[in-house]
Predict the structure of Metallo-beta-lactamase domain-containing protein.
Amino acid sequence: MVEKLEDLPDISKISANVTRILGQNPGKFTLQGTNTYVIGTQYPYVLVDPGEGKQEYLPLLASALDALSSNTNTLPEVSDIMISHWHSDHVGGLPSVLSLLQSRWQSRNPTTPLSSYLAPKLHKYPLPSDIAGPASTAHNKLPEIIESLPKGAFTPTPDGKPFHDLHDNQLFRASSPAIRVIHSPGHTLDSIALDIPDDHALYTADTVLGQGTAVFEDLRLYLQSLNKLLEYGKKAPEGYQTLYPAHGPIVKSGHELISTYIKHRLDREQQVLEVLRTKPTEGDAWTTWTIVKVLYASYPESLWIPASHSIDLHLKKLQDEGTVVFLGGEGVEKAWKLDCESPSS
């Protein structure tokens, strides 16, 4: 049964340090829409993700900034924009948001030369140079978005690149509220989480959602990241309790939900293995599709295609671990068997 989505306001002051603004792009995968976050107690602020690029988002961001403080000097309202990962619903709004911030500064400083504008820096964890998978396909609109960035509306790196690279365990901001970067690949290779110790909160981007379960590109990396985030919360001196996801409501019991995510994936993996230990229901070998038909028999058939992607990634992980053998085929007709020499089989 599909979980009913919780109603979320367009703008929420979720803590003394953080304001959430909905990206105005609700949908099957975005839930109530992409959550963007303004972090800070005074300007200049940090903006986490500029949303998908919906025009309806811009007046909401403007309203949220107006409510935070009355900036009457030449400082920018936003000094840094952090990108959680390359998906379009998280980066598509970058050109329009940069134009908005520049325009608001000009309105406050009509007699000051635009050259005095301290444009925001853009920050992102870099993708590998030999990137493969979805990020190497036409689904990745980031190169086009970069080309459309308004000149003078952002501060590039010394060598002219638009993004300043983030790295794992980077203390991005030391002053209150502090922000630490945690590389958490799996959903995408460049996914990050952000520890906000003043809030005892962890921004999880799309790695952990406020409702439902997340999708991922690489299950092995995804499980490693979930365990990394779980352990981080236990070891950090100001360990998080709450999760600020990129989709859905905030989560009060963060450790419990991440543990549930891990258990769900491991349980599903065992179910796949149990099916492979039985005689195929169709043909000479189990395929991704016939496994889905068994495991999702009680679900609407409309969910089987997206489920097949998840099952395929489970099988790929098991193949990489030497537990199953790929026999050939393409798409949902990929055929698989247990590796009889593997201890796990």
Summary: Residues 254-276 form the longest helix (23 residues). The chain has two domains: 11-263, 277-338.
